Amino acid sequence: MENKNNNIVDIFVVGGGINGVGIARDASGRGLSVILAEKDDLAAHTSSASSKLIHGGLRYLEHYEFRLVRESLKEREVLLRAAPHLISPLRFILPHHNAMRPSLLLRLGLFLYDHLGGRKLLPATVSRNFKKHESGKPLKASFIKGFEYSDCWVDDARLVCLTAKDAQEKGATILIGHEVTRAVRKAGVWHITVQSQSKTLTTYQARALVNAAGAWVDDLEEKAEPKPRSKKKIRMVKGSHIIVPKLYEGNFAYTFQHTDNRVVFAIPYEGEYTLIGTTDVPYDADPNTVAITKSEEAYLCQVASSYFEKPIQQDQIKWSYSGIRPLVDDGEASASKTTRDYVLELDTQESAPMLSVYGGKITTFRCLAEDVMKKLQPHLAYTAKNWTATAPLPGGEMGYVGLDHFHKEINSKYPWLAKGILRRLVKAYGTRTKAVIRDAKSMKDLGRNFGAGLYEAELLYLKNEEWANTAQDALWRRSKLGLHMTEAEQIAVDEWFNQ
């Protein structure tokens, strides 16, 4: 049986990754009516499989992508102000390798990196002597000097959730577990058929359709009638990461150059681990089943081992993840040289616009959303101006300059809460930590303890406020607590969701 929703909304967005939710947030904040449909979970695919960085992309300078780097560098500080609980400054160590890029070239690149984006909050690049500085301790003795520069860390999947939450609070309807099966243009209106996980079909109507389906962007175009005239196609490139037990002390991340002209990051992760990635592998299989290969594992271990004093073996890998970068096919022979910039294609047949998003990176999602709205403005005739550059994301209302004061306030308010748990909650929820804890006065008031500092009060918040419907949603996307829990504890969370 098919249901029909006769209300015509302004924009129907397909895709619950960072670009889709960013567009839904921007549009709803301008007063437009918005529906977003995601076939799986928020950030179920590419947007939870990044290197967890808000960064300019230092190596993109070699490919002369100055516009992309400049925009990305500016966005680091915009996003740092918008979500200071979720995004934090991170210092990177770039060792000079005698067999690779000359030291002078690295210095020039980092000078541009410091100045292209109008850096204000983050510290500048400095040179490091590894014989004297603590960052040299984990490295092989052959690495004598290098540089220390700034970028930012982010929990990518939580960034998606918070952006979707902001869109919802500004009026957007967020449909999780709803797949678009057909989209037909009739008399200037889209008729979009959506199937829920219970197989219920509902048809929605919209004045504009935004295709932010990521690796499935071409698939959605095939479902459209008439099909868009776009000649753009995506190029799927797989990026994989491994997580191993902590390789070194300290809060530095490392940027390692490799002989294939790529770079691999080693980043502190979840307190007890080191994250190593990423690969760049052409991919033409089903994006639903993407997974790391043994050769990718070996590659990442080999690159990291060529820098660290202690070699990394594949049997040390605690967890891994892979994602598809749905890049626009620009004809480059090398996957690593394919542009990370985004391309927007607008098709206006039947006076019903369809805008498809190709490529993009998590750092520039807000700018991408503004560009989408600029392209759609003539067809939707709204007058609201850009607004997201100065608007906090949920939980970030204290602002970057107020972060320390907020930490003191929250510690004073909940002196009974274990400091490690409180610290994690503040990083995840910011000012909304209070909504997670609610009126609890003791650890017992938080309900059942599932292990790794996860209590029932937090699960209820994730279920009721952040669309978490399974243990996978809660333990591996909205948090990474799965890394710290036993199999029995994870099963208990799964049973809680299924009760």
What does this molecule look like?
The protein is of the alpha/beta class and 499 residues long. The chain contains 13 helices and 21 strands. The strands form 3 sheets. Strands 3, 4, 5, 6, 12, 13, 14, 15, 16 and 17 form a 10-stranded mixed β-sheet that branches. α1 links the parallel β1 (2-14) and β2 (34-38). The two termini are 28 Å apart. The mean pLDDT is 94.
Q: State the shape.
A: globular
* Helical fraction: 25-40%
As a percent range, the share of strand residues is 25-35%
- Which class do the helix and strand fractions yield? alpha/beta
- Count of individual helical segments: 13
Major sheet details:
10 strands, mixed
- The poorly predicted ranges are none
User: Radius of gyration, Cα only, in angstroms?
Assistant: 23 Å
How far from one another are the termini?
28 Å
- Number of E strands: 21
The pLDDT mean sits at 94
